SRPBCC family protein
Amino acid sequence: MDEVYRHLSDPHSYIGLSPLVVAVRDVRTSRDAEGRTVTDYVAVERFRFLRLLRWDNPIRVRMVATRPNGQLVSDVRSPGRVRLRAVVDLTAEAAGTRVHEQVTATAPALLRRFVSSQARQVAAYRAAELTRRMAT
């Protein structure tokens, strides 16, 4: 469980763990008023349209270790008034670590279908990629 937590609490791990994230920069770690580890960073999502057009979308992420080695909460602010909250809970099991992620998103009406579709695709990809990474 510790290895999975360390991996998920490192912003650089999300490059490739999320199929859209191609870069991470401006990583800053601090403590909040409750003594929890807070990591603020910028992740760059890359979208491709019609395989010809590329759009790099810088998103601001605040990840809080709400329960060390057990839970991470990430709040994402993206241009276009898109907001996302991901709560990742880790539970030790005999066969390894169970990862449960709950994602909620808000977006303007014109972007909701796109945001929802992308969030589902990313979650499925991330589950498979994390399993692959932890198996090696």
